[in-house]
Amino acid sequence: MIHKPTTLDDASGRRAVLVFHPPFAHHQSVTLHPTAHRPLLPRRLPSPACRYPRHLLLLALLVLGLAASSPLAGLDDLERLERIAAQRHGPETAERVRHWRDLLERVADDDERTQIREVNEFFNRMLLYQDDQVTWGQEDFWATPLEALDKGAGDCEDFTIAKYVSLRKLGVPDERLRLFYVVARMGGPGSNITQAHMVLGYFTDPGAEPLVLDNLVTFIEPASRRDDLTPIFSFNSEGLWPDGAERSAADPTARLSRWRRVLEQMDADGIDLNRPITDTQGTQ
Fold first, then answer.
1. pTM > 0.85
2. At residue 104, what are phi and psi to the nearest 5 degrees?
3. In this predicted structure, which of 22-36, 79-93, 143-157, 179-193 has the lowest mean pLDDT?
4. Cα separation of 79 and 83, whole Å?
5. Which residues pair with 193 in a beta bridge?
6. Residue 234 φ then ψ, to 5°
7. Helix (H) or strand (E) holding 39
8. Fold that domain 6-35+60-268 belongs to in CATH
9. What are phi and psi of 12, to 5 degrees?
10. Where are the beta strands (DSSP E) in the chain?
11. How many Cβ atoms from other residues are within 10 Å of residue 146's Cβ?
12. Domain range summary for the chain, segments of one domain joined by +
């Protein structure tokens, strides 16, 4: 049986590890094990070298801010992120960010069902699934979309965060999106192999059954048809809900330090989740 712990921070700022105990079929037990406080930020990793001279002109244009601007005012933070990607990581990462920006611009006026399908397919194709130990040299690291696109790889949290950010930028309200921390049954209905996992839940309205966007399953289905997933808790930028709770139980940035780091890093990079790209006048 596979267990991947995650961590919550208690009110005093101490960190605790969530460890899941079998069986998962009915009542789920969660144990909190206090651990020593660890730094939230990883050590700085070297930026990849520029491998392709043919991209040097693109890099220069991005750094100088001469690339063509989008007519959608709400997309300007993605254009700025493209320049940041070029400066910080190089032209290959900038090109991946440009593909992401192009996707959002292309589907900005589509209906939400089309948007969630396109976003789900984009990141399931763009990112290679890879364990954090391989990608980051640590057991559990939650990446911003820029960080994931730079590596071209991520694990379930990184896929889910990238999809969440994309749909927020497309104007889906926070109250209709949640990141679900779940236990996933692996290997079919009779299997007793489980793994901690994260998926994105999209609600057509806040009280509706969510649709599940998953990097392990390419098609989007209602939660009731995903009996391989057992939810533990869910969260977004505004709240944190234990499974079955109707009201938020905590501030997610106070209890989930990795989520707090992601939001703070995106803010530092100029990504405004409250300013959708359909906002052509530059205001909400």
1. no
2. -65, -40
3. 22-36
4. 7
5. 186
6. -140, 160
7. none
8. C8orf32 fold (3.10.620)
9. -85, 0
10. 6-9, 15-21, 29-35, 128-129, 153-154, 177-186, 193-202, 211-213, 221-222, 229-235, 240-242
11. 24
12. 6-35+60-268
